[in-house]
Amino acid sequence: MGRTRVVIWFRNDLRLLDNACVARAATLASESSDVEVVPVYVFDETYFKPSKRGLARFGAGRGKFTLECVGDLKTSLRALGSDLLVRCGKSRDVIAELTLTGANDRTIILTQTEVTSEETEMDVAVERATRERARGGAASATMERHWGSTLYHIDDVPFDVTSGLSDLPDVFTPFRNKVESKCKVRDVIPAPTANELGHVPASVEGFEWMPKPSDLPFASSEIAMDCDKRIKDCLDERSVLDFKGGESNALARVKYYLWESDRLATYFETRNGMLGGDYSTKLAPWLALGCVSPRHVVSEIRRYESERVENKSTYWVIFELIWRDFFKFFALKHGNKIFHLDGTAGRRASWKRDEKILKAWKTGTTGYPLIDANMRELAATGFMSNRGRQNVASWLALDAGIDWRHGADWFEHHLLDYDTASNWGNWCAAAGMTGGRINRFNIAKQTKDYDPAGEYIKTWVKELAEVPAAYIADPNQAPRELRDRIGLNYPNKLALPRRDFTEMGSPPGPRRGGGGGGRGRGRPGGSTPNRGTKARVASVYDTVYG
Ligand SMILES: Cc1cc2nc3c(=O)[nH]c(=O)nc-3n(C[C@H](O)[C@H](O)[C@H](O)COP(=O)(O)OP(=O)(O)OC[C@H]3O[C@@H](n4cnc5c(N)ncnc54)[C@H](O)[C@@H]3O)c2cc1C
User: Fold this and answer.
1) Do residues 246 and 237 lie in contact, with contact meaning Cβ atoms separated by under 8 Å?
2) What is residue 222's three-state secondary structure?
């Protein structure tokens, strides 16, 4: 009889609690003392390559956060008597190297099911490479994919998984109504206890190694240096939170937001804020890297509801987590269309390239204070409120008419909570490319409603510190005498094109190309053909949100 090695290939599931792969490894290890468990994480160079539009996809802030997540997982695994092997390179090569090759040996690779093409293509490459290596020595290698990133398990959702979720609604409300009425959230899977994963085998070397920023395959040495700097000292004092990666910090944040501060009980009223740590949960970065599962968050909310209070706020965090699920399943259904210029609806619109506008948007110098403040916050801290994201996305895509994928790329580079399905799904929707109505935000009115005194704007746009609230949405409209007195030095609003939204139609028949994907080419979830109809075009209208 040969040996059995179980490789836990951690990706966006950097936790021990409620992790189906970890639980499965513990079960396999309990079946025989000959089973050895090797937990591994790879900083895969694929994610660090520039996007199709030339922007480095993995930024310094996310580099720091991910290093912290991986370090925290390593510490937790060591506390159990196991460890985490950390590598940089290609997952395919690293995991193939871990494959046993002796006669009758078997290697079982456990990994979380992913929904987008780059990740699923990576699975296939790992599977192929490990099989080939095992076969060379008359051994065997298999991969098990375990679902784990959503609140509702894919096997429980009331949609046709076998047809690639072809009956999944393309808008949120019917999706939510169906999942809430038809399925239950499964129980949280307990974390393993000491020694359940056994000790890592002595034959595998390199467990003592943890990469530094300069070891990560960043697109440039400047990004690596910036990452190093962020680790060593410089938390911007205006950051909403000192985000530190890792499961222990994620669980501490859940505990704080629910039990220690009771902020959960007022979430509905505060969620549109932009300043401070507590207007929203700030769980997104940890959820994106899988340091905490949405199921754990919801089970804690349910406990809070039974022990403290149940109200609209406690429900609303669950509501938001269902949005997160929606975008995961939406990505699975539509495959690479979420990366295409004409989106999942196949809508044609006149997008343009304008380097001046794009640069102003990225650097927070558009002359629109709410946009500039949010964009500066993102670049400095890796975070932006949901209110801010809606506004800056609407401005870039719908007001400026810039190819919205440049915006999605920029977010991918900067956001600590970057999640492929949430980011590209939200951008595609914000650009009006998922079908249905188009929600264009009135930036001046949004400023008045959500930052009437300009407190948030002044935090990030220092040159507006002296501008009275009455002129905060458009400082250059202040009387000349006032502008001179305060020495206002802020750009005029960029001139933007007038856009005709009725032109956004969907072409009849299947997409004929020209949209140009943002990432890889695979189609993991399949897709439905575009049905460009007059009714659909007629349903497109410009809602200016107040
Ligand atoms: C253009 C654009 C891009 C976005 N990109 C991302 C992204 O890459 N990663 C990401 O996690 N969120 C993304 N969002 C969604 C949302 O803005 C963030 O999840 C939220 O602001 C994070 O703050 P929070 O954790 O305090 O959220 P809370 O308000 O506390 O909400 C709780 C959780 O619900 C989930 N959630 C809330 N709103 C959404 C939403 N619209 N879509 C998906 N999940 C949601 C998040 O996991 C969040 O942590 C994007 C939104 C827009 C408009």
Assistant:
1) no
2) helix
Which tokens in the block code for residue 134?
A: 């095992």
Q: Is the dihedral of CA 113, 114, 115, 118 positive or negative?
A: negative
- By residue range, what is the domain housing residue 363? 340-545
CATH assignment at residue 158: 1.25.40.80
Question: pLDDT of 325-337, one tens digit each?
Answer: 999 999 999 999 9
pLDDT for res 11: 98
Q: Considering its fold, how many domains does the chain have in total? A: 3
Whether the CB of 389 sits within 6 Å of ligand 1? yes
Report the nearest atom of ligand 1 relative to the CA of 283: 25
Q: Is 282 in the pocket of ligand 1 (CB under 6 A)?
A: yes
- Check pocket membership of 64 for ligand 1, CB cut-off 6 A: no
Q: Is residue 197 part of a domain?
A: no
User: To 10 degrees, what angle do helices 60-79 and 247-255 make?
Assistant: 90
Residues contacting 278, CB < 8 A, separation 6+? 257, 261, 263, 270
CB contact at 8 A, 422 and 67: no
Helix and strand totals (H; E) in the chain: 20, 7
Counting atoms of ligand 1 from 1, which one is nearest the CA of 393?
A: 1
Do 368 and 275 lie in a common domain? no
pLDDT of 530 reads 36
d(CA 17, CA 23): 9
CA of 385 to the centre of ligand 1 (A): 8
Spell out the residues 6+ positions from residue 154 whose beta carbon is closer than 8 angstroms to its own. 113, 147, 161, 329
What is the structure's pLDDT at 502?
63
Question: The domain that contains 11 carries what CATH number?
Answer: 3.40.50.620
Q: In this predicted structure, what is the pLDDT of residue 420?
A: 98
Which residues of the chain have a pLDDT value below 70?
A: 501-546
Whether 393 lines ligand 1, by a CB cut-off of 6 Å, is yes
Whether residue 64 is found in the same domain as residue 143: yes
DSSP 8-state secondary structure symbol assigned to residue 503: G
Pocket test for ligand 1, best of 176, 297, 319, 324 (most atoms within 8 A of CB): 324
441 and 324 co-located in one domain: no
Q: Is the CB of 284 under 6 A from ligand 1?
A: yes
Give me the amino acid identity at 121: E
- CB of 283 within 6 A of ligand 1: the answer is yes
Q: Are residues 26 and 172 in the same domain?
A: no
Q: For the beta carbon of residue 134, count every other beta carbon within 10 angstroms.
A: 21
The token pair that represents 433 in the structure block:
């490319």
Alpha-helix runs per DSSP H in 44-116: 60-79, 91-97
- For ligand 1, whether the C-beta of 280 sits within 6 Å is yes
Q: Chain centroid to CA 124: how far? A: 22
**Ligand 1 touching residue 421 (CB < 6 A):** no
